[in-house]
Amino acid sequence: MNPTHRFSTTLALLALLAAPAVSSAGASDWPSWRGPTSDGVIPSSNTPLTWSAEDNVKWKVALGMPANGSPVVQGDRIFLTTPEDTEGKGRTLECYSRADGERLWARTVQVEEKMPTHETNPYCGTTPAVSGDRVVVWHATAGLHCYDLEGESVWSRDLGEFRHIWGYGTSPVIREGVVYLNTGPGARTFMT
After folding, report:
1. Residue 125, by phi and psi: left (phi above 0), alpha (psi -120 to 50) or beta?
2. Of 30, 39, 129, 157, which residue has the fewest beta carbons closer than 10 angstroms?
């Protein structure tokens, strides 16, 4: 998939996530990679069976650069990762209003050296995870970071350098207040 297609797909997914709740309150949250039940299934019988920009897109917003991470949704907020530059030295977690697409905040961390990645895997290929009033994102060599829903830093962990020819794409998982990160491939594979 070329970067332009990924970029367009991200925009369409972002707009889809802005649509009204598909079932009971909270059921339309998508708090992490593969959703609320960790299996990629929407727990609803009201899932749209047809798609059109007129019927299904509430708003859209242009994103700065393409990335492979998925947006996540918690209540009235949408979180996603984007690179700030083509070398992946600036890695950003962004927060948008689910109601109208307004960018509420962005937090960027830096990595000193350009890390390798494959041309089909732009930087910021991870999906954040949100639970309660915390959102966690892994930016590989730039660290594991936790923010509150207003974008204030809660904690950060330097997990060392992550270097691989295909780049990175592992996403954190939050269960009962504990953050899990299984990462690889490469010389340094680990679970923390």
Report:
1. alpha
2. 39
